[in-house]
Write a structure and sequence with these properties.
The structure holds two protein chains of two kinds. Chain A contains 14 helices and no strands. Chain A is mainly α. Chain A folds into two domains: about 1-50; about 65-295, Orthogonal Bundle (MetI-like fold), CATH 1.10.3720. In chain A, α8 (about 165-175) crosses α12 (about 240-245). The longest helix of chain A is centred in the first third of the chain and has 38 residues, at about 10-50. Chain A starts with a helix and ends with a helix. Chain B has a single domain (about 60-260), classed as MetI-like (MetI-like fold). Helices cover about 75% and strands about 0% of the residues of chain B. Chain B is globular and about 70 Å long. Chain B starts with a helix and ends in a 17-residue tail after the last helix. Classes of the chains: A mainly alpha, B mainly alpha. At the A-B interface, α1, α2, α4, α5 and α6 of A face α1, α3, α4, α5 and α6 of B.
Chain lengths: ~300, ~280
Amino acid sequence: MSVSAETDHSIPAASDRRRRLFQFGMSAPGALATSVLVLFALGIVLFLSFRTNDGSLLGSGFTVGNFASALSDPLYATVILRSLTIAGLVTLATVVTAYPVAYYLAFHAGKHRGLLLFIVTLPFWTSYLLRVFAWKVVLAYNGVLNSALLNTGITSEPILAFLNTPAAVVVTLAHAYAAFAILPIYVALENVPKSLIEAAEDLGARPFSIFRRIILPISMPGVLGAGLVVFVPTVGDYVTPALVGGPSSTLIGSMIQAQFGKANDWPFGAALSVIVMLVILAVVVAARFADKHFGSRT
Amino acid sequence: MSAHRSTGRAWLRFYIVAYVVFLYLPIAIIPIFSFNNSIQAAFPLSGFTLEWYGSLLNNENLHRAFTTSLIVGFSAAFLATTIGVTVGYMEVAGGDRVSRIISSMARLPILIPGVIVGIALLILVNLAGLGPSRIAIVLGHTLVALPTAVVIMRGRFLALPKSFSEVAMDLGAHEWTTFRRIVLPLAAPAIASSFMLSFLTSFDEFIVAFFLSGTEPTLPLFVWGQLRFPKALPSVMALGSVILLASIVIATAAEIIRRRGAPVYDLPVTAKGNLPIS
C-alpha cells in the first residue's frame, strides 16, 4: 500500500488499463444477462410472432396472419377485453384498499411503522401458488366459507356461486397482489412535506381538503406506480383463472399458456404475447401521461 | 374538530386491523387444516392429526423436487445477486449512460408478465439446445429475481457515503481494491439480504418454472401436480404449511439482516426508483 498518487500519474497507461479492465469486468455480468435474457429473449418472441407455424422451433416465412386472426376472432377479442376488465378491477380494488394502509403507515404509525410495514409486506414473500390454492379451499362448494356459513346458520345450503366465477378471480388476485400496492404509495406519501400540511392547517383548511388538494396529488406517482405493478402480473396471470376461475373466466395468460402447451402453436402464442406487451406499453405511457398532467407538479 | 379527527383515526386503525386479517386469514387456512383429521377442508374441524405431515416423510418424488428447488434457488440467487451487485455498483459509482441503461433493463422484468418471461425463455433454451431443464429454470428465476436484487443493492450503494471510496482512491487504491476492501464489506448485509430474497423468489416461483421444467419439477410444480388429486389435499396442506413457514423464516431473517446493516433505507422492494419507467 505504498503506491502514492504521484506514482499513479507516472504510469497513466497501466493505471488506465486496470481501470478499464475493472469497468469491463463489472459491466459484463449485467450487460450479458440483460442483453441475452431480456433483449434477445423478447426479440425472438417478436420474431416468432411474424412466422407461420410449421411445427419447427422458429416456424417459417413471414406473416401477419397470427395478429390478424388474434384480432379478428371474436373469441380472442372477448378474452383480451375480459383480461383488461379483470386486471383493471383488481388494480382498482388493490390500490383503493391499500391507500389507507399506506396513509396510516406514513402519518400515524409512529414507532410501530417498521413492524407494521413488515407485517403487510410479508405475505408477498410467501408462495403465490399457495395463496391462490388457499382461496380455492376457502371458496369451494364443500369448502371453508360455505361450511362456516352453514355451521353458523347464516345459510341453510352451500352457495354455489363462490368458486368458478370472475368475482373469485378478482378477490383472489386482489389478495395475492395486495402487498405490491402498499409500498409505492407509502414511499410517495413519505415525500409529502410536513410543512405543507402544517401551513394548510394554519390557514384553516379542513382535513379532507388537505387530503384532496395536497396529499393526494403529491402521492399520485406512487398510486400510478402501484397500479402498474399490480396490473402487469394480473393481466398475464393463468394460475388463478385455472384454480378458482372456471371456464367463464379464462384470461389471455391462459390462452398464451395453451398455445405453448396443448394447442402447440408457438407463433400464435408469441403474437398474443406481443399484443399483451403492447397493451402494457400503452398503460405505462398512459400512466406517465397521467402523472405529468394530473399528478404532482413538483 | 379534534374529536372528529380522533374518531377518524379510530376508524383508520380499525381498517388496518381488518386489512391485516384479510391478508393473513386465507393463508392461515392452510396450516389450520393441515392438522385436521379429514380429507375434506371444511368446518367443523373433525380432529387433530399429524398423519399428513407423516406422509411427507417418505415421499420420494417430493424429496427430489425439494432438492431441485434448493439447487435452482441457490444458483439463481447467486447469479441474481452477482448481477445485482455489479449493476447496482456501476450505476451508482460510474453513473455513465451505459450503466444506467443496463440497470433499467435489469429492472424491466417487473413490467413483463410471468407467462411471457416463461415462454420467451422456453424459446431461448430450445434455441440454445438446452431444452426445458434445471439450467433453464435457473435462467428464468435469475431474471425474475433480478429486479429485487438490483433495487436492494443500488439502494445500499446509494446510502454509502461516497467519501469512503474517495479516501481509498486518494490513498492510491485501485478501483478493484476499493470495491473489494471497502465497498463489498460495507454492503455485506445488503448482499446477504438480496441473496436470501432472491432464493425465496425462486423457491416460491411457479409461473415461469412451469414452462421451463423438464423431468425435474421444483417444489411448487410438485404441489401443482398434486392439486389434481382430491385425496392428496391434506398432504398438500401439510407441505404448504412447511413451505409457508420456511418462507416466513427466510424473509424475516433477510429483513433483520438488512435493518442491522443499513438503518438508512428501510424499503426492500417496489420502493423508490424501482420502476424503470420513472
